[in-house]
Amino acid sequence: MRYSPGNVRYGGFWIRFFAVFIDALIIGVPFWILDGLISEIDLDESSLEIVGAMSAIASLSVGWLYEALLTSSPRAATLGKQAVGLRVIDIDGSPTSFRRATGRHFAKILSGLFLAIGYLISVLDPQKRTFHDHLCKTLVIRA
Fold this sequence. Notes:
single chain; mainly alpha; two-stranded antiparallel sheet; 2 strands
């Protein structure tokens, strides 16, 4: 489905917040359980540091791949965005590439800096775009 500026409804702050909450549960709960299981294993200090580093790398990698792969898929949305009826597209209406979705994922770090102003600007933006949407030339629309 192609984006047409005349009949589009943009995804606002609160619906996007709820989608992120759903995604955080989907990604976070399995890691929380895994960390709990690992903490029950009797490890020495050195092994514990290695396991902790591996867990952090796995968490970052899974979060990135989850978002980038799903956002660049034909559904154009993470499971959280799909649940609330949102899609991510390029500003010209075309599907988002894996490369752009990757950039968008990591640009969210910048949106979160300085009291999350990068997210809050979506409240005032006519297209409900965040700082990372502006950087990566994307839109979040209602499907």
